[in-house]
Specification:
Strand content: under 5%
Radius of gyration: 11 Å
Number of helices: 4
Order of helices and strands: HHHH
Low-confidence stretches: none
Length: 71
């Protein structure tokens, strides 16, 4: 799959349940490089420099938790 297809699958999966703030966080996550996003998703890291202070917000942690859940 292409990067764009993966992004759309993730967005489609959560689109109906996200608040506007959570949607903004998801957009930021999907804009990360593939390696940074994968490191976050598999729990290798809990933050990335590219997102700055956003990584410590409750909204970020909630969105990341949802993405890390096994579907």
């Amino acid at each position: 799959r292409s990067r764009r297809q993966r992004q759309m699958c993730i967005r489609d999966r959560y689109a109906d349940t996200l608040t506007e703030e959570q949607g903004a966080i998801l957009t930021q996550l999907l804009a990360l490089s593939d390696n940074d996003l994968m490191d976050l998703l598999i729990g290798r890291v809990d933050s990335v420099v590219a997102l700055g202070d956003v990584c410590s917000t409750p909204t970020f942690l909630a969105v990341l938790g949802c993405l890390r859940e096994k579907q």
